[in-house]
Amino acid sequence: MNQFRDPIHGFIDVSDEEKKIIDSPPFQRLRNIRQLATTYLVYHGAEHTRFGHSLGVMHLVTKTFDSVIRKNDLLFNSDEKTNNEIVLWYRQILRLIALTHDLGHAPFSHASESVFNKGVKHEHFTKKILLETEIAEHINKIGSRFQADNGEKYKITPELIWMIYEGEDIFNPDFITPDFKFLQSFMDSELDCDKMDYLLRDSHFCGVSYGKYDLERFISTITVYKKEEKVMQLAIEKGGIQAFEEFVLARYFMLIQVYFHKTRRLFDKKLIRCLGKLLPDGKYPLDVNDYLLWDDNRILSNIYNSDEEAYRDFKNRVTMPCVYETKAHATGKADDENFKLIRKSLFREFGEENFIFDDVGKEAHELAPVFLEPKDDSGRGIIIIDKISSEPGNIMKESLILVGLLEPIRIKRIYAKKNIYKEVKLFIEELKGDA
Asked: Are 50 and 199 in contact (CB under 8 A)?
């Protein structure tokens, strides 16, 4: 057994087989992929990477799965020996999904995804790395050893890891089991361990408190609701409602204060302009081996070693003041029309080349706004389990706070060059006065 010392979770245990994945070049590349893109230019501590996050998610998915199994005494099979084998199988599958889920991220993570080829997302490369690089060999070796110890029916393959994580092919007849959807929810739901880690990690390295929540209490109240005899979903005990509210609010505050910070968003935009000049044909390569050669260090090296004017603003950290910004929840038609009018007028008066425009949005949560019956399969309802009555409820019937966060975040901004800032601000004020 190996241990990694993590600033968020303390010691993280890793098996010898898992360490071979971690030591491989595709995984080591994550040491050079910043978790929060250009945020380090605003919050200088935000130098953390997808490497630490991936280890953290593996740690949390194990901790959460173990807690859920232990407190519910879950039975996947009536035979005790077989049930124990299945639990170990699911646990290893989850650890591998969590460890590898971010392998396909581009340099600077989400910030540079706009320079992917049309229809391509970072998950496209995660799949390729899982199936077409040495990562596949390491996973297959883990699977072979597991089958030798527990039986041929307990397959662990790169294809299985991807299928469960992606979720779209969850009912593939080669892999079908109702528990796979249950496993996926540990990594992709409103209760997932991905969010659990990145909120605490991003908050810590940015030096802010917005993303903090009571992790131990939250995990301890996650439980299981059995919709049918063989169909389960993650749920929350009634006593954990406040812990879940804190978790959702942490994400909301991080979105507003950090992820959508106006200066960070500006540098993301400037970075994208650099990438358009830097990358071959302005896009990341589609070949997985060529793609893996790109990381933050290579991008920055090219930018800082070039005298091209196109890179000057970014490498000199030239800022542009935000001259207009909508409210955080500007989703109405009037808001859109007003913004379009101001943007069009500014472009006409001062020239489009003097401005950068940004439009960013995200839902604070993806929970259903109305009560959903337990049999609902939308995935948008979180079931609340009352220990006393044993009756299932829905989080949106129990939490006034979360009902208040139904409106998605939508922020539109216009940045202007510093030399025309005063003129632009005066022009906008006059324009708003005439409206």
From this structure: no
User: What SS3 class is residue 1?
Assistant: coil
Share of the chain above pLDDT 70, in %: 90
Confidence of residue 370 (pLDDT cuts 50, 70, 90): very low
The CA angle 274-277-280, to the nearest 5 degrees, is 125
Going by C-beta distance under 8 Å and a sequence separation of 6 or more, which residues neighbour residue 324?
Answer: 339, 342, 413, 414, 428
Task: Given CATH 1.20.1730.10, say whether it is the number of domain 2-262.
Answer: no
Q: What angle do CA 52, 53, 56 make, to 5 degrees?
A: 90
Distance of alpha carbon 254 from alpha carbon 304, whole angstroms: 30
Give the distance from CA 210 to its chain's centroid: 17
The partner residues of 383 in beta bridges, in order of sequence, read 235, 394
pLDDT in tens, 220-242: 999 988 876 667 889 999 999 99
- CA distance linking residue 381 with residue 374, whole number of Å: 8
- Which tokens in the block code for residue 36? 């929060």
Helix, strand or coil, per DSSP, at residue 103: coil
Asked if 409 and 361 count as a contact pair (C-beta separation under 8 A), the reply is: yes
- What is the Cα–Cα distance from 389 to 424, expressed in whole angstroms? 62
Instruction: Tell me, rounded to whole angstroms, the distance of Cα 216 from its chain centroid.
Output: 21
Q: Are 274 and 303 in contact (CB under 8 A)?
A: yes
**At residue 95, what are phi and psi to the nearest 5 degrees?**
-60, -40
Strands 2-6 and 10-14: antiparallel
